[in-house]
Amino acid sequence: WYQIFQSIVDRHVPLRTKKVKSLQLPKWMTSEILAGIRQRNQLKLQARSGVIPWETFTHQRNKITTQIKQAKQNYFKQEIYQNKHDSKKLWKLMKDAVDLNMNKATPNKILDNTDLITDPKKIANIFNSHFSQIANTVTKESAHHQPNFDALRNFVERVHAKTKITIDQSLCCQYCQKSWNAITDYIS
């Protein structure tokens, strides 16, 4: 009985996939943009059926895309300016602007020298090898390098022209060397 009933229901009231809109619109979304999106969608249907030229749709599509980009840019500029002294809100804005959730996928292929690698374990080993060698490379390159504090001193003097700040080079060098030794001891 159930199968007969279900087949009748499926025939007369088929299931349809429907896109559910978000309950909360982005803060940069305006009524003008929403109206433009609706018009763009209608024009797309008309262009597909051949009622209007395809160029009419593409013109509206490009126009609304530009409006969306401009609205986002204006919104984030304004929010960043208003929250420039609140780092927590700034980082939240940055995450919203960049949309960090988009880039969480791991690569499915990688070029190692001239070889194309597709095996996930080999890809992981290549990344592991690369990032584990960074500390050794930095250690070797900086072993013969003496720190130059002129750029730092110039920056401090330029930013704080009225306030005199002196940097004791020997103290800084000792601190940097002590910190560097602690890092290299930890690595090895």
Q: Tell me the distance between the termini.
A: 74 Å
Which class best fits the helix and strand makeup? mainly alpha
Please write the string of helix (H) and strand (E) elements: HHHHEEHHH
Biggest sheet strand order reads: 1-2
Helix content: 55-70%
Rg measurement, Å: 29 Å
Outline the low-pLDDT stretches.
none
Describe the structure concisely for a colleague:
With 188 residues, the chain is mainly alpha-helical.
Entry keywords:
single chain, 188 residues, mainly alpha, 7 helices, 3% strand, extended
Structure description:
With 188 residues, the chain is mostly helical. It is 65% helix and 3% strand. Among the domains are: 28-102, no CATH class; 105-140, no CATH class. The chain contains seven helices and two strands; from the N terminus they run H-H-H-H-E-E-H-H-H. A hairpin with a 2-residue loop joins strand 1 and strand 2. Helix 2 packs antiparallel against helix 3. The model has no long low-confidence stretch (mean pLDDT 79).
